[in-house]
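User
Take a look at the entry that follows and flag anything odd:
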Amino acid sequence: MTQDNGELDSLVRKRIRALRVAQGWSLEELATRAHVSQSTLSRIENGQRRLALDQLVTLARALDTTLDQLVETAADDVVTSPMIDGAHGLMRWMVKGNPGMSVVRQRMTAPPPDSPARMRAHPGREWLVVLSGTATLMLGHRRYRVETNQAAEFPTMLPHAIGAEGGPCEILGIFDRDARRGHQRDGGGTAGDSSD
């Protein structure tokens, strides 16, 4: 990559500087971490030195990012529409930047199962926030009340289920790849709902 590459070149230089500043690092600190001289790093950030692939790889590692993220350009498909699953009353969005992740919005009306035998466990992690109403989250033998605007995060190896308490509730959940697969195998429901 050379300075003649215009917008991408400028974007990468700005990202290097922005990531360094976000970490609270001086030029000297990042230069030390990336094993380059401080003057070289300064010239890279200011556009006075060409961007070499080997230096970009080293800088990406030092900044705790990837080369792909450092050179990524804006995508045309920024806005996405959900996949709608009417049978389970949910909408699901895939996270493009992390294809294993998905975001799910679901309206629940049934309480969680009253029997621990009906809860499921599988690899993964889940995070959810209650958008409206009150939900009951069952984790093993513990029962948690999660109210509007409260969130819960848990490993899905714990037997779990979630349902509405005292009327309908709506949740937004984020599932990693393993949790999403676990729910797909269990019948398509979300964070341990009674159909999970």
In short: Residues 6-23 form the longest helix (18 residues). The mean pLDDT is 82. Residues 6 and 12 are 10 Å apart (CA to CA). Helices lie at 6-23, 27-34, 38-46, 53-62, 67-71, 177-185.
